[in-house]
Design a protein that fits this description.
It catalyses: ATP + protein L-histidine = ADP + protein N-phospho-L-histidine. It is built from 13 helices and 18 strands. By secondary structure, the protein is of the alpha+beta class. It has 3 domains: 152 residues, Sandwich (Jelly Rolls); 212 residues; 131 residues, Histidine kinase-like ATPase, C-terminal domain (Heat Shock Protein 90, 2-Layer Sandwich).
């Protein structure tokens, strides 16, 4: 906030003796827009010593008028009061909102008719107004009724037309429309050469608008960056509070710099809203400083927000004659909170020996030092020295942003160090894990070998061994064994030996790329035999696996197909063979069909068809389903895995 703007937010009539003090306190927050000490009349004339004209301001007066008072009625008015600029009429007319006319009588005496033009500069008109030169209008605000235009911090200058100037006495009439509690009145008025007036205007614009616009841009930019950082890192609330404080500060400054009206917002309503922006900013900034130091004072924070909320509600529900008091109390509240924050943070920095925290404490300490200097100038009405706060505000915003950047850089450095340490740890653990995996792999290989040996021994004992024992008993008890029976025994032994070999050969075996590749070797061997025997064969195979089978499943199906096709060649007398492989509902289905003489499927259970029984055992061993359907002219073997 600013000194002149701060006085607009407090009801001066309630605490007239504290006016200067609390205006100075508010000056600590953001700077000054207008000097509050009165100026002498000679200071308002900006002419070089060698100028061929002499300009003298005779007096400056003001008077209350009604809205109906016209420019032609001004000379008829009495009870004019002499004032000094800048003038805030609430010191004279308590609680007055309305129109005040200012009359500036000045004289012009030139030695020659060919002279440099004169110009007029007005620092501020609070809140809106119009300017006349010898009763001729030279400028008027856009809105002289609510919502009023905002010329209170917008300096303006005009080159005076020579045709309207007189030798001798001239007159400026300035109509000001103001609102009580908003420091209504007129700022400094300068008369001089255009060059001097433009220079004075540019200086005022730079100190009271440009610097604050720079502050606004810096604050919003840094606030946006802090907000993005907070979005990515919600745990670190420091950036969130800084972003909120920057946003509220930006809204406050935007209202300070605005010159146009806001639809449906009257001057007093806008002042209330802007005061709430200021209250929110001070509380958010205070919490930001605490979070930056890693501190939380929940009870105090809640008390601050509760106080601000109560004050905000009071602003909008209190009667109009109490608005000034509430504005003043809120102004006093934010002043005390901000100063207490600056002072208390020194203690936090003393107890927390970190460079970034102490740097922020140094900035807050600089706030106090800068404002003590400016307060001294205000209290002593010293016009020879320059206020520091307007120049320090943008630098302060940059300094605070540098601290946040420092904090981010520290976090990045910590992350990089952590990543480096983590990388080294990962490399070390990876090496240990690799050694462990190598040892585990060797153990697994040894275990697999033992499992293979154990499985082979079980297969030989339970399969081939049992068949040998049964065959030995059968031979021992049978006196006459025909050739066919003996061949069946040998087939049984052969099949058992094949199963033992197959169970071991599946380890490390690869699954064929497609069903066509799987059937290629079988198809090549048997198609040639079928052609020699004049047997027609049809093969239906899909182009790719829908669900890839295991190597053992592929081997089982291959052995079943070989055995079935061999039996067809030997026994069926068929003329047509169909082989199909399909996949349905997560099942792999093999079907082999012929049109031969057929057989009785029940003989499989009796062991009379060793080959069919071997196929059935092989399928059941891997959890499959083996089906046989046979009659004269059709035999179907179906395997479902």
């Amino acid at each position: 906030m600013y000194t002149h703007q701060g006085s607009r937010y407090c009801k001066i009539t309630w605490f007239a003796r504290l006016k200067n003090f609390f205006s100075c306190c508010l000056f600590m927050l953001v700077g000054s827009i207008a000097q509050i000490h009165a100026s002498s009349l000679n200071e308002l004339v900006l002419l070089p010593k060698d100028h061929n004209c002499h300009v003298n301001i005779i007096n400056i007066q003001s008077i209350q008028t009604s809205p109906d008072t016209q420019i032609s009625d001004i000379n008829k008015l009495t009870n004019w009061q002499t004032v000094k600029l800048p003038d805030f009429w609430e010191n004279r007319w308590k609680n007055y909102s309305g129109i005040v006319w200012y009359r500036i009588l000045w004289s012009k005496a030139c030695q020659t008719s060919q002279t440099e033009p004169l110009a007029l500069n007005i620092d501020s008109i609070n809140m809106a107004g119009e300017v006349y030169l010898n009763k001729q209008l030279i400028w008027r605000d856009k809105n002289l009724t609510e919502p009023l235009s905002r010329s209170w911090n917008m300096p303006r200058y005009w080159v005076l037309p020579n045709s309207e100037l007189k030798q001798g006495e001239n007159e400026f009439l300035i109509r000001v429309v103001g609102i009580s509690t908003q420091s209504p009145g007129l700022g400094k008025v300068y008369i001089g050469t255009p060059h001097a007036i433009i220079e004075q205007n540019s200086k005022y614009v730079f100190e009271h608008r440009t610097l604050y616009f720079i502050n606004l841009v810096i604050s919003l930019t840094l606030g946006a960056i802090a907000f993005l950082v907070w979005l990515l890192r919600r745990k670190d609330s420091t950036f969130g509070w800084f972003a909120l404080a920057s946003l509220l500060w930006g809204l406050f400054i935007s209202n300070i710099l605005a010159t146009e009206t806001y639809p449906f917002l009257y001057t007093l309503q806008l002042a209330k809203i802007n005061m709430l922006f200021l209250v929110g900013y001070v509380i958010s900034f205070t919490i930001y400083t605490w979070r930056f130091a890693g501190k939380k004072y929940k009870k105090i924070e809640n008390l601050l927000w509760l106080t601000g909320f109560i004050g905000g509600v009071g602003l909008f529900i209190a009667p109009s004659w109490y608005i000034g008091l509430i504005l003043f109390l809120l102004f006093l509240f934010v002043t005390i909170v901000f100063l207490a924050c600056c002072i208390f943070y020194q203690w936090i920095a003393y107890k927390t020996p970190k460079a970034d925290i102490r740097f922020l404490a140094l900035i807050l300490l600089g706030f106090i030092g800068i404002n003590i200097h400016d307060v001294y100038l205000i209290l002593t009405q010293n016009t020879e020295h320059t206020y520091i706060t307007p120049f320090a505000a943008p630098l302060t915003a940059l300094a605070i942003s540098m601290i946040l950047a420092w904090r981010i850089a520290q976090n990045v450095n910590h992350i990089e160090e952590f990543n480096q340490t983590l990388t080294q740890s990962v490399e070390r653990v990876s090496a240990d894990l690799k050694n462990s995996l190598d040892k585990k792999h060797q153990l697994e290989i040894e275990n697999m070998r033992l499992q293979e040996r154990l499985s082979l021994s079980h297969e030989l004992h339970d399969g081939l061994g049992g068949s040998l024992v049964r065959s030995m008993i059968l031979v021992d008890k049978s006196d006459d064994i025909d050739k066919q029976h003996f061949l069946s025994i040998l087939k049984l032994l052969r099949n058992d030996l094949r199963q033992v070999i197959d169970s071991g050969s599946t380890i490390g075996a690869k699954v064929p790329e497609s069903p066509i590749v799987w059937a290629s070797s079988i198809r090549r061997r048997f198609v040639q035999l079928f052609e020699e025997l004049e047997i027609e064969s049809k093969w239906q195979l899909p182009n790719h696996w829908l669900t890839q089978p295991t190597a053992l499943q592929c081997l089982t199906l291959a052995r079943v197909a070989e055995e079935a096709l061999t039996n067809i060649i030997k026994h069926s007398h068929a003329t047509l063979v169909k082989v199909s492989l399909s996949q349905e509902d997560q099942q792999l289905i093999l079907e082999i069909e012929d049109n031969g003489i057929g057989f009785d499927p029940l003989t499989v259970q009796e062991g009379l068809h060793v080959g069919l029984q071997s196929m059935q055992i092989r399928v059941h061993r891997i959890g499959g389903n083996f089906e046989i359907y046979s009659k004269t002219g059709q035999t179907l073997i179906r395997v479902k895995l």
